[in-house]
Task: structure prediction
Amino acid sequence: MRELRAFRIIICLSLVSIIYGQDLQWCNNGPITIPDPKWRTVPSRFEIITELISGNEMMELSQAFSVQRDAIATSSKYGPIQFYWNFGTNEQFEVLTAIVNQQPIPTCLRQVIEPTSETSVIQPKSLMIKPSILLGFNHRNENNTLWGNQYIGDEDLRGIPTNKFKACFYVSDIKATVSATYWVSDVTKFQAYLPSNESIILQIDVQIRNDGGRQDQYRYNVFRYTPNPSRREERQALETPAGVYCPNRTSTLPIPSNIPERVSSNSEALIPQANASIFSTHGLYDTEFQFSRFDLWFPDNFGRPQWHHYTEIHDFAVGLSYQYNHSTPVFNFRRRPMTIFEIDFALADCYRALGPGENFSLAVLSFKIGNDKQYPVFQNLNYLRLHIFETLMFTLFVRPIRISNLVVDKDDNDILVTFTLLDVPPRTGPVENPLKEASLDKLIERLDAVINSNGLAFRGRYDTKQVVLRARSNSLNVEHTTARQTIYKSSGPKITGLWIGFIIAGLVIGAIGGFLIFAKLAK
Result:
């Protein structure tokens, strides 16, 4: 932090040329408090890009200005610095770029704007006033009722006919008197990129002296002046850069109300204990299905150029939580993601990682949808996928987290649907009334019965029309046992009867033979 402060002091000293004892050309008739009729009033929203020359030093300076906020970006041989003022929250931010391990690291410094703060200058304790102060606004971005100027003639500047104005006014927060000379385009002789009757500010020469006798002079060469920029451009210029974290910043967003049953959130946090790294998070909360998911992206602890990804899933309906470490860098790109599918694939990956050995089972199922008339329903593939997903969810009576990785593809005249169906978890956590769901076998049996009864139908859309398509019977790729009575076939009774016949025949033959032998012995 001390190095950053020293860096700022060096820039201040190098850019501010302090002149003692020089006789500046101050206004002889006192301050000018009324704008000249020939002066075109500057609107309360503008952007200006300039070159600031002070002595032998030069830097680029641009300002985006609005009623409650303004921002200044500077670029010099010492590097870029950005300044932001928010008079709605009374905060000032400075974004510096430090080089750490040969990597540019932006750092944000926050200061509270007090009643005695010097906000009309770029840096406190300096005499470099903002362009907005020279254009009729005060140190809190309000109209300066004590500012005015006087037309002093015409002059050509860089080949452009201009009107020349003189201003003399007092800046209260830094207790300094300013004498400024303006060159603006003559709207009666020159019209450039601005609307009619709009002048272009071309150059401002500044002489300034505070009550303590400290003096300075510098020049603003204006490259571009844009009154009333678009709201998008204005917002982009006034907001701090993306990825830059400003500690202790006042939130300007209201606390959300009427939060829906399904909501997602994104956030960033600076963790000082982790090498002052920024942690990015994505959260998904579904109160209807008692499910939440939390994703965390964070930099490598050893400074390597890679990011780690960690996911935690909480299934409150059964009282289980899953921790998933994405050790394999697999990258996904979806042009039109749908939030209903955000919660599926991570839990399916957890089931695959745990496996049947832990009694976490799943099935990859597929079936076909008939499309003999070749309706071009793939024109609205997302609509078809979403309706198939919802139909399966309501047909099977399961939560959407059990259906995942749904893929829809062509198969000749049919539509091939493939998806992953999760089994119920083998155990539940400390939940008083855990959710009771059908097992994987029961769900497959139910799905097969509905498909074979020609009762599974889906809606497709193309152009402005909707069509109903049905799943083909016997197209489910998984066989199962049913509740029908099973008839067992066996040859055992026939063999038993044959043996009994042989025994009876032997007894009869033996009895007859014994009777004949006994008769012969009796004679």
In short: The chain has two domains: 2-238, 262-470. Residues 1-24, 329-337, 480-491 have pLDDT under 50 and may be disordered. The helical segments are 2-15, 131-134, 231-238, 345-354, 381-396, 440-452, 492-522.
